[in-house]
Amino acid sequence: MVQRKTAEIKKTGEITTEQIKELRARTGAGVVDCRNALRQSGGDLERAVEILRAKGLATAEKKAGRAATEGLIEAYIHTGGKVGAMVEVNCETDFVARTDEFRRLARDLAMQVTASVPRYVSREEIPADAIEEQRALFARELAGKPSAAVDGRLAKWYQDVVLLEQPFIKDESKTVRDVITDAVARIGENIQVRRFTRFRIGE
């Protein structure tokens, strides 16, 4: 069915409203961007998603150097009040910081910290000696295995302890970095997670 639709689009160049709605629901991109991505992909929805993600990444890279001095601190307390987190998320303007979309993003990030227990925002924050300690530990555990096996374990460790590299709790096909990149593309401002703190009763 999908192949037939794709073939028809390649012949006619026609994109349906239903396809645009589905792509918007999956990516949050604008109508024009969705239509253009579908045309570029010949109606292939998965390819259109990748096109929009690549475009979002390019947008995020262009905006990454811009100052993000506004934003908000958002908190999430899990049911029962035994565990929760606070996160500072920055953007460029107070106007964006007050939007519902930005607040939802910040709340999702606070939920992520609560649920997934990261230790660092980004890989760059990890002290060099901590990385070497983990590498040495994995090398001992995997003695006799190729160095690629140690690198693989280290990459998995990064996913566990680095917020931006964790699978997003609401859609594990994306990382937290992907979610922020998508938000930058939609909102049009640089967005950064500055810091976070996680609390648990008794810890």
Q: Can you give keywords for this protein?
A:
203 residues, alpha+beta, Helicase, Ruva Protein, domain 3, Tetrahydropterin Synthase, Chain A, 3 domains, 3-stranded antiparallel β-sheet, 5 strands, globular, disordered N terminus
Strand content: 15-25%
Distance between the termini: 54 Å
What is the architecture of the largest domain at the second tier of CATH? Answer: 2-Layer Sandwich
Radius of gyration: 20 Å
Mean pLDDT: 85
What is the name of the CATH superfamily of the largest domain?
Elongation factor Ts, dimerisation domain
Q: What is the number of domains?
A: 3
> Which word captures the global form?
globular
CATH domain topology of the largest domain: Tetrahydropterin Synthase, Chain A
Please write the CATH class name of the largest domain: Alpha Beta
Can you give a write-up of this model?
The protein has helices at residues 2-12, 17-27, 31-40, 45-63, 94-97, 100-116, 128-141, 147-161, 176-187; strands at residues 70-77, 83-91, 167-168, 171-175, 192-200. The chain is α+β, with helices and mostly antiparallel strands. The chain has nine helices and five strands; from the N terminus they run ααααββααααββαβ. The strands form two sheets. It has a three-stranded antiparallel β-sheet with strand order 1-2-5. A two-stranded antiparallel sheet has the order 3-4. It has three domains: 2-63, Helicase, Ruva Protein, domain 3 (Orthogonal Bundle); 70-122 and 162-200, Elongation factor Ts, dimerisation domain (Tetrahydropterin Synthase, Chain A), CATH 3.30.479; 127-160, no CATH class.
